[in-house]
Design brief:
Blueprint lengths: L1 E6 L1 H23 L15 E6 L1 H6 L1 E6 L8 H25 L3 E5 L2 H13 L4 E4 L12 H7 L2 E4 L4 H7 L4 E3 L14 H7 L7 E6 L4 H18 L3 E6 L6 H9 L7 H7 E4 L2 H7 L2 E5 L2 H9 L3 E5 L3 H7 L10 H6 L6 E3 L5 H11 L4 H18 L8 H15 L1
Parallel strand pairs: 1-2, 1-4, 2-3, 4-5, 5-6, 6-7, 8-9, 8-11, 9-10, 11-12, 12-13
Length: 403
């Protein structure tokens, strides 16, 4: 039985890998005769194909389209990449026509995936949307696309279930896939040795995004702030799977009118994983997106930043329907972390906000407590204590059984 999984960007690709592993475990349990098996044993051989990356491939998925090629942001970049993206889309649909999947799971990346969902629905293939588009934030009229093309919506933020159900979408909150992440096992000393860091200094994690254009928009100002914070800190820059180290080093080594690249290169360290960096850091400067949830789960105080092109901002801002940009603030329904977006995103403002949360004191303590509350809300999915990917797998299994 084949399943199409279409994921975009680094976070969606990670959720896809988790889901594949959970489905394979579930298939193994059902094949072993677990009570309540809804499908005969001979039907439990699952095969996966679709759009993803290294993690999904390692989990057992045949990658037809590389998720890196779908990682675009902003109106101008989408337009310039449109022919290539359309080509990849057609390639995936051709693969679906050849392999005849029993079910399709689309993950995030709405601009690409709702079109995939539409084509699957036209072919009579059930569609599950895991990590639904944030239509509650803007373009709420597009909820009709989910009603029309999606059989089941699996949402990862607690307020989303009611929003979508109120608009006629069969939605279930399964919990956030990152909510149960344990603290990294590596000690601070071992991590410092592995990454040539000075363990005596405080560390600050810098996360500019996972797509090249957003990194170009965000990282230079973050680096300027790092330079102004002074030599008492070392800065950790996790390399997203959708990026490469040479691209980041090029940006770090580029001097500007306000900072000296040579001194900064000695303070900024490229590291392979985000979670250990966040966990062992005193604070973070984090671009809006999944990274803000990772910081919250690691309990790391941070400042949220983001910038897009002037055209994208001018066209998009009037359509935003929510009071906050940072996901942790939306979940908490209050400003837990400061938001420096567009014209507020300056090195001076970053330094001002960082100087509030780096030292011990009431602002730092209050933020850590509120981040802990956000983590608690993200874990309350099915109420069974299962990992969100396992809850999602059980629901998807029901759809497979119907097929």
């Amino acid at each position: 039985m084949r399943i199409l999984i279409s994921a975009g960007e680094a976070s969606g690709e990670m959720y896809g890998a988790q889901l594949i592993e959970a489905l394979l475990r579930l298939a193994e349990l059902r094949s072993a005769g677990r009570p309540g098996a809804a499908v005969p044993t001979q039907a439990l051989q699952l095969e996966f194909f679709g759009a993803g990356g290294e993690r999904m491939a390692a989990a057992g998925c045949e990658i037809v389209v590389d998720a890196k090629d779908l990682a675009v942001v902003g109106i101008t970049e989408v337009l310039s990449r449109l022919p290539k993206i359309l080509g990849l889309y057609r390639k995936l649909i051709r693969a679906a026509d050849e392999k005849h999947p029993a079910l399709a799971v689309v993950i995030d990346a709405p601009a690409f995936n709702w079109r995939v969902a539409r084509q699957m629905r036209r072919r009579g293939i059930p569609v599950v949307y895991y990590v639904c588009p944030q239509f509650w934030a803007w373009r709420q009229g597009r909820v009709k696309l989910l009603r029309k093309y999606v059989d089941k919506a699996l949402v990862i933020f607690p307020f989303e279930e009611k929003f979508y159900r109120d608009r006629g979408v069969d939605a279930t909150f399964v919990g956030h896939p990152l909510a149960d992440l344990p603290a990294p096992a590596i000690s601070r000393e071992a991590y410092a040795a592995a990454n040539q860091l000075d363990a005596a200094k405080a560390w600050i994690t810098v996360m500019p995004g996972s797509r090249r254009k957003e990194v170009r928009m965000n990282l230079p100002t973050m680096l300027e702030a790092a330079d102004r914070l002074g030599g008492g800190y070392e800065f950790l820059l996790p390399v997203a799977r959708t990026l490469d180290s040479s691209f980041l080093r090029e940006l770090i080594s580029a001097p500007t009118q306000t900072r000296r690249a040579a001194s900064l290169q000695r303070k900024v360290h490229l590291v392979p994983e985000a979670l250990p960096a966040l966990y062992h850091s005193r604070a973070g400067i984090v671009a809006s997106g999944t990274a803000t949830v990772e910081a919250a789960i690691m309990g790391t105080p941070f400042v949220m930043v983001y910038r897009v092109s002037a055209l994208t901002y001018a066209l998009g801002k009037p359509r935003v329907k929510v009071p906050y940009f940072a996901m942790v603030n939306l979940i908490a329904e209050e400003e837990v972390v400061p938001e420096l977006v567009q014209h507020k995103f300056t090195a001076e403002n970053i330094v001002t906000e960082m100087n509030k949360i780096i030292p011990d004191g009431e602002p730092r303590t209050r933020m850590i407590e509120r981040l802990g509350a956000v983590k608690g809300r993200l874990k309350r999915g099915s109420g069974t204590g299962a990992h969100p990917s396992e809850t999602a797998a059980e629901i998807i299994w029901t759809e497979i059984s119907r097929k």
